Amino acid sequence: MAKNPIRSEDSATPPSTPTLRRSASQAELDVDPEMYTPSKRVKTLYNALASTSSGSFLVSNDKLTSSTPIIAPNLEAVPSSIPQPDWSLVIESTSDLSYQSYQQLVEENKKLRTNLQHGQTLVKAQEGIIEASHATIVVQNLHLAKLNVALHGREKPKTSGRQLIIDSGKGQVFSSDEILEGLRSQDEKKKEAAADKQQRAEARAAKKAAGARIAAEWQAIKDEHERRVGEWETTCQKHAEEGLPKKHWPKKPVRPPKPTLEDDEDEEPQDDGGGEDEDR
Question: What is the pTM of this model?
């Protein structure tokens, strides 16, 4: 009698089903780069630069230092191993107009095809060199942009609101009038800055409230206009059923213009001192 095989604890776990989903990187490799949009090409370039040790700093937030090397320009030429086509075949000679045998035509056709293949190889090599030069220019442009940011930070250092009120080169008495006056001046500047900040905050709050009020007024104007237009359409339909000529129909209501902040400021009452004159 055959014995049942002993099952281990690992064999009790059902096997996992292999997924058919490929990784994003593999899917991107299978896509023709010619089908990429400009934004997709820039994203692909940034991802490629981020994956390299020499170009990752260009797309990172790290500060640029003098130890970061600048990529050298691409001055590559067409390799000498690539045969040059015979460009003289482009010029039509007088001998080509004369009678040629079948064998001569075959040889000429073969020569033209061979030189055309040489020209195709040369064009592909030049396109590769141009593409490499363009890539070098893009990387150098990223380096210069990062360098420009670093220079901008050095040209405009952070300003401090503190003021030196003592002369460190001489002995000072901290209860002297000059030091007390300097402390008072600092306190006044702080109070002025705080008052200016509070005034700007109040102006922003007032502008926001005025905008909300104007929006509510504009919505009320539109609702009222829609109601009047509905009444006008009902009246016109009634006149049409009665056979009344259109020249006797009422005109379509015109919607008032949208109120603005300038109109709201003009409507605010101004105190010209009239109350005091009446009291007098």
Answer: 0.39
